[in-house]
Structure formats: C-alpha cells, structure tokens
Design brief:
A: mainly alpha, Arp2/3 complex 21 kDa subunit ARPC3, 9 helices, about 0% strand, B: mainly alpha, two-stranded antiparallel sheet, about 70% helix, about 5% strand
Chain lengths: ~230, ~290
C-alpha cells in the first residue's frame, strides 16, 4: 500500500488501470460473477474511472489556494444536501465546473457524493454517484464558454443534468436488481423515481437561476483578488 | 480475540470487500442466505437486538422488492395464478425473492461498514492511495459542520439586524439566500487564509506525511490472508460453475460437488467471522470484568 505513494508507481497506474485492470474486471465478470456480470463490470469500471481521474490529479501540481477553494465548494455542496426537497448539490458542481474548469468540476462532484454519503449512507451506489456528479461537473467545465454567456443554456444544462443523473442511477438499480438490463424494469424504475427526477431538475434550475450570477461574481472576484 | 473495529482499516476493508463483494454479484440462493444471515447477525452483534435505527424499513423494502419481479416478469414454466391476463410464475417469484435478499444483505453489510469504517479509518485508507484526495476529504469533512455553525451565526446576526422575517415561504427563502451568500463569501475568504497558512508551513514542498494511529500487525495480516483465502475458495466455486443456479425457464441447480461444499463452507465462515469476533470480544470483556 505504501508503494502507491511512490510517484513512479502512480504513473504506472495511469497505464495499468485502462489497459489491464478494466479488461481484467470484464474477464472476472464473465467468469466468476457470471450471474451478475453487467452489474459487477459496471460497478468496477465506475470505481476505476474515478480512481484513474484522481491518480491524474494526484500527479499534477496544484496550488494550495486552488485546492482549498475546491474543498470549500465540496463542503458547501455537501452541506446543501441537508436541505429537504430541493438539492443545490448539482448546481454548485456545475458552477464550480464553469468557473474553475472541468477538473475542479469533476472533483467537486465526485467528492461531494463521497462525503455526503458519510451522512446519508455509503453503498454500492457511491461510485456511480461519484462518476455521475463528476461528469456533470466535467461537462460543465468543457462547455463553460457557452454556459457563461447564455443564461438559457445554463438552465437547460441544469435541467438536463438533473434528469441524466437520475437516469444513470436507475440504470445501476436495474442492473443490480435484475443482473442484466431490462427495459420494462427500467421504465418502472424511472416511473418510481420520477418525483425525484423532477425535483433534481427543478432544484437545479432554481438554484442556477438564483445562484449562478452572484456565485460566479464571487469566484471571479477571488480570481481577480488572489489569482486562482 | 477482538472485534473487527479494532483491526487495521486495511484488514477491515478487505473483509468487507470479500464478504459484501461476493454477496453483491451472485444469485446462488444458499450463498445469499448465508450473506443475509451473516450480515444480520453482525448488525445485531454491533447494535443490539433493539437497534436504535430500526431494521423495519429494510424488511419492508425486502418485501416490496421481492414482489416487483413476479408482477413485471412473466417468464417461467410454473404458473401460480393469472392476474390481469398476466401469468404470475413461481420462478419469477423465487427470482424476486433472491434478488431482494441480495440487495438487503448488501444493505445490511454496508450498515455495519458505516459503523466500523468511520471517517478517520477511510481517511487512513485514502491517504495510502492518494495523499491529495485524503487532504481534500479531511478538510471537507471538517468544513461541513463548520459551515453549519457559521450559517447559524450569520442567521442570528441578520435576525438581530432585522433584515428579514420568517413570515412566509418566499421571504424565508430570500432570507436563506442572504445567509448563504454571506456564508459563501466568508467560506472562500477563510479558505484563502487556510491555503496561505498551508503554503507558509511548506505545503507542496515535499511529500505530505500524515499521522495514523493504526498499525498493521500480525493479527491484521492473519485476518487479511484468511479473508482472501476464503473469498478465493468461493470465487473458485463460482468460476468453475459448481455453484451455478438457473431460474428460468425452470429452477435448475448444479449437482452438489465437493468443490461446491468447500465454497459454501468457506462463505459460511467468511459471513460468520465478524459475529464470532464480536461475541469473542464481549465474552473476554465479561470474563475480565468478573475477576475484579
């Protein structure tokens, strides 16, 4: 375990994970866990993708200020998960992706999922949540030019991200329950999750509508004042 | 003998990966029954028979999920009865029962996981894997309650200024946003102070070290090895097809081979291990107490 603190082995991980570990889990899923191979492979690949991203981040030189600001955003997103009914998590993830870049967005999403699950219960869904929220932040960062300029695009992105998050998590529910993908069960799962989907999408739109501008101004100000 | 919570976090994590990992991805009914029995008995050993957070919601979830499958899936050879022109089959019913047993078993394993793998233990694990991720994790875990307290302080300050009232929902929401805005500014400025202080103390100059109150001793090595061996035996049984079990169209089980017996015995040991450790610990405690 101590060996992973070694920079060379960490660099090797970047090659091992996509070219050895992921094919190996697919093989393992086909032979050992054949009854649930889809669920096993998807969970393992989700966890490994997050690990791959973090090992890339580990290698990079990140300034202390940037690191702490990302941490502050993560903590704000987690604290926001305690608000009943409406959840500002995804909107904070989107905002951090837009103003601090895709990598910061991914980290905010992934760690918000991990840390808030300390309070709401860890489970096999944690890697999926980390990946789903991380991707919401990553794509927000990649399309930050458009999202910064047009408020309509931002709100549409927020609504889509809320719906997509729910849809991705339901894929996992079905895979895990049924062993293979089943459209009937998926539709049933989407149906039972519909209130949550609507609340995710709606709270994203509400929070982005209210928060995006002042929050963005605060982050811009940090940029001007401290050069982050 | 000591409970699982007293072992090194690495050993405990390996145990949970082995026990819950097998239970999460198999559909063999005997393995699932063993997993449920092990997870439930461990939960009882940890929280007592009347656990404060009720187990009842999980049992209700079990019943609901067991019924979803026969109502949505209609394949299977043995028709029990016909409902709304759709046959409800025995095979679909038993499959649903097993799928839901798997999910409930894993949820119980994770209940114990949350109890044993507290945030400092997970931090120790992450610190081994990625020091930077561990730093983010530990700071964010500290910030969450800190921000909660600060939000309360800002709230009372604004109340004292008479800036808003809690009359109606819209006014309350507006007030909440005022508090949130002040909190964000404070949190960002406070973060910069923290970061500058970190840089001043040499963050980023060399590799970060951290204090860990855990040592990987001989007992931890034994537990890790035992878990890996037992899980390996179960995986061998699963991979060779000795534990194969088919639900559709008819329930077919692979004949009971010696390898299957070994695998079942191995998983039974694995599932019962933490409960045995926990009971051994409490017996030892009782013996020591009665002597004085």
């Amino acid at each position: 375990m101590i060996a992973i603190e070694n920079a060379r082995i960490r660099r090797a991980l970047k090659i091992i994970i996509p070219f050895a570990a992921i094919p190996f889990t697919v093989l393992l899923g086909g032979t050992v866990f054949s009854a649930r191979s889809y669920a096993f492979v998807s969970l393992a690949v989700a966890a490994l993708s997050v690990a791959l991203f973090i090992s890339g981040f580990e290698k990079k030189q990140t300034g202390a200020r940037r690191l702490v600001i990302v941490t502050v955003l993560i903590a704000l997103a987690c604290a926001g998960r305690f608000i009943p009914l409406i959840k500002p998590v995804a909107s904070i993830v989107i905002i951090s992706g837009i103003y601090l870049g895709g990598e910061a967005g991914f980290l905010t999403g992934a760690f918000s999922a991990l840390i808030s699950d300390f309070y709401f219960g860890q489970g096999p869904w944690t890697p999926f949540q980390m990946l789903a929220w991380g991707l919401v932040g990553l794509f927000a960062g990649l399309s930050s030019g458009v999202l910064k300029k047009s408020r309509a695009a931002l709100l549409v992105y927020g609504a889509l991200a809320g719906a997509a998050y729910s849809a991705i998590m339901d894929v996992w529910t079905v895979l895990w329950y049924n062993g293979a993908f089943d459209i009937k069960l998926y539709i049933a799962a989407l149906g039972t999750a519909a209130p949550y989907t609507v609340s995710y999408a709606a709270s994203n739109v509400i929070f982005l509508w209210v928060l995006a501008r002042p929050f963005g101004q605060k982050l811009e100000r940090m940029h001007i004042k401290y050069g982050i | 003998m000591q409970g699982l919570a007293f072992y090194n976090p690495i050993a405990a994590a390996v145990y949970f990966i082995c026990a819950a990992g097998v239970a999460m991805f198999t559909m063999n009914p005997l393995l699932l029954a063993l997993s449920c029995a092990g997870a439930l008995s461990f939960d009882i050993a940890l929280r007592g028979l009347r656990g404060r957070q009720g187990r009842l919601p999980l049992f209700i979830l079990f019943a609901v999920m067991a019924l979803i499958n026969p109502l949505t899936h209609h394949n299977g050879a043995t028709v029990l009865f016909v409902m709304n022109d759709n046959p409800v089959t025995l095979e679909a019913f038993i499959y649903g029962l097993n799928a839901s047993a798997m999910i409930i078993g894993v949820l119980f394993w994770f209940r114990s996981f949350s109890r044993i793998m507290t945030s400092d233990r997970l931090l120790y694990l992450f610190g081994r894997l990625s020091p930077k991720a561990a730093l983010i994790l530990s700071m964010a875990l500290r910030y969450v309650p800190l921000f909660g307290r600060q939000a309360k302080r800002i709230n009372s300050a604004q109340k004292a200024l008479g800036l808003y009232k809690d009359d109606n929902a819209i006014d309350a929401l507006r007030g909440g946003l005022h508090v949130f805005s002040a909190l964000v500014t404070w949190a960002l400025e406070n973060g910069i102070t923290t970061a500058d202080s970190m840089s001043a103390r040499g963050y980023g100059v060399s590799r970060r070290t951290s204090y860990a109150p855990f040592r990987f001793g001989r007992a931890d090595a034994c537990l890790t090895l035992l878990c890996v061996l037992l899980a390996g035996a179960v995986c061998a049984g699963l991979a060779s097809g000795a534990l194969a079990f088919r639900y559709y169209p008819r329930i077919v089980s692979a004949p009971l081979s010696p390898l299957a017996c070994v695998s079942y015995a191995a998983y039974a040991c694995l599932a019962a291990l933490p409960t045995i450790l926990e009971i051994g610990e409490s017996l030892k405690w009782r013996c020591l107490k009665s002597k004085t």
